[in-house]
């Protein structure tokens, strides 16, 4: 029996993970669940999945959870905040940590799981974007096992021998749907609403990653994620737009062979693969329906329409500090856009200003994880100042 702690249990990845785990009650047991704002949902999930531990953000949320909990059922232990998440990541009873918190808020607990040598199922790509080399070094030093949940990285993992990049691999090709704005007139992009931007053509996801998909920064974050996860030079990673989201990514070998992983756009597939690895387990997804697959289309990415993708490649080529600034400024800008405080096109403008201005003032290397947290906090506060001054 594998004890699973799910950080970000109330989100979209949390839902899909719990759906798969529920089907395999003989194999997995839910050890811990965390929430941030949706405490009522955490309570409902806890009544179904019976975790031993829940993690809530603060004492007010703890109070709400206690008040709502039915008195006739024994209550899970309640832990609080980032410390509660990190303690659970280190908890000897937790075998596997599903890192599915959105944003750099997920980095401390994912990092703690790496330090504790856990099996980590990583959805939180921002952890690798902000702290790639430190994170992977910690995984290696502590014999942790890192398995990708992000569908592209999961596909690449499946197409590489034992999930590892080697000299026989020519390049990794990350596919991208192009999001909801692949074809609209670029002049109309400044007027799109958060609701339009959140409507992804193929995937159903949380709001932040949906906006990242619409700007295509998501693909940029994934290029950085792939670089660190597979230890491959950025020059060997390409992006290919594939609007049907059927091929989840490809590996090209030196002999010219291309291996790809195909499937429905359903996160339960990569989640099942990672949960069961090295076995394959059932995922609850429907069999692939070839009668619906009329065509597979491919295009090269349009860097003019999607400047965020170019900014991510630039940051990766430049420095780890630039990657921290890219990620932090994006999180703040996306939050402002979701609150209707800035336009969709301001997201890229903001990131570019932060990379051109603030990032150049950063001194010294990021040698310790605390350096990453500090720079992330500074970049966030500068981005907010910039946006408050101009909007
Ligand atoms: P959601 O917004 O649906 O869920 C986010 C989760 O994180 C929720 O449980 C939320 O709690 C929690 N959370 C939010 N802010 C904080 C915080 N400050 N501290 C602690 N917990 C917090 O996002 P997704 O599930 O879509 O995405 C999660 C991660 O997985 C992201 O990094 C995303 O990039 C990645 N990912 C997602 C995919 C998808 O298909 N959804 C695909 C590939 C990667 P609450 O809801 O209670 O507020
Ligand atoms: Mg992805």
Largest β-sheet summary = 7 strands, parallel
Instruction: Provide the structure class.
Output: alpha/beta
The total count of helices amounts to: 15
Determine the oligomeric state from the structure: single chain
3D shape: globular
Share of helix, binned: 40-55%
Strand content: 5-15%
Number of domains: 3
Structure description:
Its cofactor is Mg(2+); Mn(2+). This is 1-deoxy-D-xylulose 5-phosphate reductoisomerase. This protein has 15 helices and 11 strands. The longest helix is centred in the last third of the chain and has 22 residues, at 369-390. Helices cover 46% and strands 15% of the residues. The protein has helices at 12-23, 39-49, 59-68, 81-90, 107-115, 125-141, 151-159, 194-198, 207-215, 217-230, 268-276, 307-318, 320-338, 344-356, 369-390, and strands at 2-7, 28-34, 53-56, 77-80, 96-99, 119-122, 145-148, 169-176, 237-241, 247-253, 258-262. The chain folds into 3 domains: 2-148, NAD(P)-binding Rossmann-like Domain (Rossmann fold); 150-307, no CATH class; 319-391, RNA polymerase sigma factor, region 2, helix turn helix motif (Rna Polymerase Sigma Factor, Chain: A). It has a 7-stranded parallel beta sheet, with helices on both faces. Strands 9-8-10-11 form a 4-stranded mixed beta sheet, covered by helices on one side. The chain starts with a strand and ends with a helix. Strand 3, helix 3 and strand 4 (77-80) form a beta-alpha-beta unit. It has 391 residues and is α/β, with parallel strands linked by helices. Bound molecules: NADPH dihydro-nicotinamide-adenine-dinucleotide phosphate (NDP) and magnesium ion (MG). The site of NADPH dihydro-nicotinamide-adenine-dinucleotide phosphate has 27 residues, from helix 1, helix 6 and helix 9. Residues 8-14, 35-38, 100-102, 105, 123-126, 150, 203, 205-209, 267 line the site of NADPH dihydro-nicotinamide-adenine-dinucleotide phosphate (NDP).
